[in-house]
Fold this protein.
Amino acid sequence: MKFRSYLFFFIFFVFSSAFTGAGIGFYFFSLPDFSEIRKLETYKPPAITRIYSSDNKPVKELYVERRSSHNTDYFSKYLVDALIATEDRRFYSHSGISPKGMVRAFVKDIIAMSFVEGASTLTQQLAKTLFLSSEKKIKRKIMEILLALQIEKKYTKKEILGLYLNQVYFGSGAYGAESAARTYFSSKASDLTVDQAALIAGMPKAPGYLSPLKNPEKALKRRNIVLKNMYLTKKLSKKDYLEAKEKKLLLKPCKNKNEKYFWYVDYIKQKLGRELGYDFLYKSGLNIYTPLDTQIQTAVEKAIEKNMPVLEKRMKKAGLKSRPEAAAIVMDIKSGNILAMTGGRDFSSSQFNRAIMAERQPGSSFKPFLYALAIEKGYAQNCTLRDAPTIFNLSRNRDWEPENFSKTYSGEMTIRKALVKSKNIPAARLVEKLGPVNLAKFVKKLGIDSRMGNTLSISLGAYETNLLELTRAYAVFANQGKLRQTHFISKIENRGKILYKAEMFEGKKVFPERESAIVVDLLQGVMKEGTGRSGQIKGYPLAGKTGTTNNYHDALFIGFSPSVAVGVWVGCDDGSTLGFSETGAKAALPVWKDIMKAVIDKKKSPEYFFIPDRVVYKKFNSDTGKILRPESNKGVIGMFREENSGGCGEFS
């Protein structure tokens, strides 16, 4: 026994002398580096950026280190007691280091001929976390000790404990005790039970190894050691200790609740990453508020999940191997807010956002813009166009011979019937009269920025655009001719300061109010009398148009209620056909209808399309355009400008 005592004091004397001499020299050599301590005065850890839905519920967290900061008093007393009982029992009495612990660790390291025990106080652990690496070298250890002494001089024990609880790593991506509480128990660090607090307090020793999500048995064993330490330090009664020790490991991991909102969230991440910088986005603790309506977003995804397998089954039956994709946009007409967006069927297999990034031909869903231009130029619904085979002579000795989808022709028909039945020949004749250049300029005014050509085929939607632009342009008609800027973000806050707030102007007037109402009336005709009939929802006014491209490569339906516009695209990424007769009405409209049902279900009262002053309704023959008596059993009813209530006039 005497020999061991002499050996201990000899080692202590040698260690103390060596450490004192090395420490003094190292202190003065490294003194300039202690300017790092002053950074704690203004230190702001990388915080979590949160994205919120329209009801202010978080749908996504962005972070480099998952961390939340709180004052020391916020944390559960159990957690503080457990931490001190296990990691640093002399925390309130030492000055940053524990000489006795250092000697004990030094002896063990000498015997083992390696670093087997760290002997770090909480203050030393904090110094290492904030300023140093985790490498086990003498130089790093001495620096850790000196930094700990400096921290103790500048901060109270309560402040040091708060910094520790907010900064230290607790495994599974959780930095700080609050993040750990949410990660393992979906709880706040202020509400932890004694057994939960003990588990978290035991993790800094080996956070990766002791994570209960990875090694539950090891974590449980470590928790019970911490509980025993709390009992030995009189922070727990024997009864409470035994009860807590017997508790099973009941984890409640914080699940990712944004699984159904990937497309919307990813668009915001990419947009803000480019505009603000990804480093700022992920580290600044922003609060990003969006108009995302999670109920409608879920309905959009369910509509695609329900209808796409049905289409895929038809394609397989026809011997087609391509997998059909789908995209959808839901836009609030008055505000321009994007309520929901889906860019494909499966975000995990492809992040290509077909609602925004895909440039595809709109087909016949482009025709309403042609007829809107005609209405603006003075045409009425009952003006007639000839539906018969024709050849258009183009420049450079080229000819263009369009065909109707049905391959049949009906002779004279009104503008209304030509749109309702989606006839190609009347549309081609009309664009020849109005001029394709004028149509290209007109759609740009409506918000379609994609490059449009100036050939006659523009009337049939032969030039590419994206679904967001199409949906936004349709909304102009329902919004009394006003073009709205689309909004995916409502507001961005950073530590209480507003960095951005969407400006909700009334919208730019790009189309006359009366003419807008007439176009809406025409598109209601598509739903009542034409290719959109199967999309009707009883008792609710809807308007829209189908679109199908050559050889059934793309199927679309764009339409709106009085308050919400919905655009749906269906097609294959490789550009292959969806199959014979897979039109917009057959492939896209079922998705659109399911989405619109969800939109309508959210409305508490019925809505109606705006009817401006100085318009009248007249009944007319949809073929000849002749105005009929109101009591006639034939014909259709359409809206006219008051001053040309007789119909087409000079254009007939």
